[in-house]
Write a structure and sequence with these properties.
By secondary structure, the protein is mainly alpha-helical. It has seven helices and no strands. The mean pLDDT is about 85. It comes from Planktotalea frisia.
């Protein structure tokens, strides 16, 4: 999934920076940016914008999966997007998909409606 807007920004970056080997070179530039460098940049940005709650790059991955679940994206699609080998790994994200849980219809309400309809049928 690559947003057309993000693709445009990446193209602009590439046009300006003209990286030789990697789109995001690390230090030294012959290597790609490392996960440690990304973590430092994330923490620095978090501090810069005033986010004080604990968060890591994995928090972003977790949020991505949770938001997709909240948007009713099929868990099998999310599995592929996250690169999980097993569906059970992706299913762990379901425990925090609050919108999904909140929007799940109550079986009690369904029984209550059925009971009301049954009573109307019997009276009719």
């Amino acid at each position: 999934m690559l947003s057309p807007c993000l693709l445009e920004l990446l193209r602009d970056y590439w046009f300006e920076a003209r990286p030789a080997r990697w789109l995001f070179p690390g230090k030294p530039k012959i290597n790609p940016v490392s996960s440690r460098q990304l973590g430092r940049a994330f923490n620095s940005t978090k501090h810069l914008v005033g986010i004080t709650r604990p968060a890591t790059l994995h928090t972003l991955r977790h949020s991505f999966a949770t938001h997709l679940l909240d948007a009713n994206v099929d868990v099998r699609v999310i599995k592929v997007l996250l690169g999980h080998a097993k569906l059970s790994t992706t299913a762990r994200y379901r425990h925090v998909a609050t919108k999904t849980i909140r929007d799940t219809p109550s079986l009690f309400e369904a029984l209550k409606k059925l009971n009301v309809q049954t009573r109307k049928y019997r009276r009719g």
